[in-house]
Amino acid sequence: MTDPRPSSAVMDVDHLDELLRQCVQCGLCLPHCATWLATGNEVQSPRGRLLLLGELIRPSDTNTAAASDAFLQAFDQCIGCRACETACPSGVPFTLLEYGQLRATEVPPLRSGLPVPAVPGAVLRRMDQTAFLGFLSRVGDLVRGVLTVVAGKTWRRRLAGGPAGTGRLVRLLGSLPTSARSDTELVKMLDGLCGRETQLVGGSPNFVGLEIPDHLPSGPGVAFFRGCANAGLLPGTSRRLRDLLSASGCRLEEPGSQDCCGALATHTGRPGRAADLRRRNREAFAGALTDGTVIVAEAAGCSHELKEYGDDFRTGVVDAVVMLAGLDLPPMGSVPLKVAYHDPCHARHGQGIIDEPRKLLAAIGGLEIVEPAEPEVCCGSGGAWGLRYPELSDELGRRKAADLAATGADLVVTSNPGCLGQIADGLQVIAPDLPILPLTDLLWYAALLRIDSSRP
Ligand code: SF4
Ligand code: SF4
Questions:
Q1: To the nearest whole percent, how much of the chain has pLDDT over 70?
Q2: Which of 61, 277, 351, 378 could pair with 262 in a Cys bridge, judged by C-beta atoms 3.0 to 4.6 Å apart?
Q3: Could you read off the pLDDT of 15-68 as tens digits, one per residue?
Q4: Pocket of ligand 1 contains residue 23 by CB under 6 Å
Q5: Counting atoms of ligand 2 from 1, which one is nearest the CA of 87?
Q6: Is a pLDDT exceeding 70 seen at residue 266?
Q7: Which helix (H) or strand (E) holds 131?
């Protein structure tokens, strides 16, 4: 099968020109664009980028080298969040911006004068490998623990204003996605927020999680796509999600030869590596696609990327949040908290997932959902983008954290590891007492409460 996303060279420029004429320059997309909100610069807005694209694909004597430099910068700085596509009343498709982004990633940063990532290339290349991410996560936990002892619980806020080099390192540390590794750690944290003390089975610290009922013969088969970030950085969360799916009657399988979805490789200008990963995943999930087993991806970024593999994956892949919203979940206990959900752009704009996470939260008794301002604006993570533009990413993360804190929430939840780390970092500076968790960890806790309270 032909690889669907090899390079910008295969995109039909005449067709792009036709799409470009759909833009009527109304500017309604601007207030939804994170880079325009952060910079106030028209060139860093969807409308400005489309104008530059027009100059590139309709060359003339007056728009040559200067337009080309401005073009590279504008498109390299586009996060790819798709908020402009959702907002546009004229239906201008993201395909246009994607073309510009591909053109920008095909030029090596050192040659183009674009910023190089804040981490060495050798490290960046390993950031789609589960084992390396697992190692990074352990080191991050260790260093964060030391900083907490030395500088106190608010170390991130206290070190936020350090010199540029230190600031970047501290930011990397603060934005490394993390959640409770053990169930007891998660229960203790959420019990603390709720002001209760859940009695685990026999008070045992080795509590093993949800009870999995015998599978119903009618339960759906699920091929689980774990994703490199979830498997490496959030192994406890990933296992709890699998428990939740099983406790909801799913028959789970996990193809062993699966690999990273390839999103990071694409966004760091490594199309060969991305194509190789797509090929491996195609082979790993060929059986599931043939027999109609649904492929469930844990992270919104992965489900979105997998759907770009082609029509078979577009229909065969379901985001975990959507899957859970369609299942008979185990009964939920009461969680008397105000909770704000952050919509990952890969879910909200990439897949139109808006109602499902809210439906899941509404299933938890006693819980109040609060909505932040600008829910459609990107948090500024953008995977490798945040490593190339740390200052801009910082500003967007703090803007998002401030919006979430202004809701008066006790807890923030989300469903993509990049957003989880980015918002955790912003919250540690803006509102250090407001925690953030994966949505599925909260669901797991609510289901556990009900099971636990029903024990003799
Ligand atoms: S992309 Fe859409 S919303 Fe933005 S300026 Fe063009 S027509 Fe208006
Ligand atoms: S994809 Fe996001 S960052 Fe890029 S132009 Fe659209 S709204 Fe702005």
A1: 85
A2: 277
A3: 888 899 999 999 999 999 999 999 999 999 999 999 999 888 876 655 555 557
A4: yes
A5: 7
A6: yes
A7: helix 130-151
| Distance, CA of 35 to chain centre | 18
206-232 pLDDT, tens digit per residue, is 344 555 555 455 677 899 999 999 999
Give the count of beta carbons closer than 10 Å to the beta carbon of residue 287. 12
Query: How far is 382 from 372, CA to CA, in rounded Å?
Result: 20
Q: Which tokens in the block code for residue 293?
A: 């087993």
Best probe residue, ligand 1, of 16, 20, 21, 29 (max atoms within 8 Å of C-beta): 29
Q: What is the DSSP string of 104-126?
A: HHTS-HHHHTPPPPSS-HHHHHT
Among protein residues, the one with the nearest Cα to ligand 2's atom 6 is 84
Q: Token digits for 127?
A: 């950031």
| Cα–Cα distances in angstroms (integers) from residue 441 to residues 80, 275, 394, 427, 431, in the given order | 28, 32, 26, 19, 21
Taking the C-alpha atoms of residue 23 and residue 38, their distance in angstroms, rounded to an integer, is 23
Instruction: Kindly give the residue spans of alpha helices, DSSP state H, lying in 175-234.
Output: 183-194, 228-233
Residues in the chain: 456
Q: Atom 4 in ligand 1: which residue has the minimum CA distance?
A: 29
Q: What is the pTM of this model?
A: 0.90
Q: How far apart are CA 393 and CA 426, in angstroms?
A: 10
